[in-house]
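User: I'll paste a sequence; please echo it back and then give the predicted structure.

Assistant: Echoing your sequence first, then the prediction.
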Amino acid sequence: MEYDQRKMKNTAVLLLSTPMPLARKGVVAEISQFLIGHNGSVLHSDDHLDSGRDLFLSRLEWDLDGFDIPISDFEHYFKPVAERFRINYNLALTNYRPKIAILVSAYDHCLVDLLYRQRTGDLACEIVMIISNHLSGKCLIYSGRT
């Protein structure tokens, strides 16, 4: 059950945290300028202040089309920004689709939901196996195959 590759954009997501006092000194502007300076186009940006842990948290997604840093070299180029603001970060590519197996019980409503989400692109994965101890959902599995 292949995910429709036409729906996927070639983007990257940067999840990060930095101490709140440093975040107030321009971390959002610095990261945005870094991405824009390398021809990245920011598509989404979500920020959150965790006052209990005194952290600034952010999620930035940008289009990789035209981005002039190979993803394999991102850490090298981003390191000065990360060190300046003491940023802990994780970089993920949105075109990554893990292969998964689904375990199903006799109640097939959850299987229906997972199959629907995968087929519409909301569940970004490749379903390689469905295992069940009942045959009630078998028609659901084969009805969506092309």
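The CA atoms of residues 7 and 121 lie 7 Å apart. Residues 1-6 have pLDDT under 50 and may be disordered.
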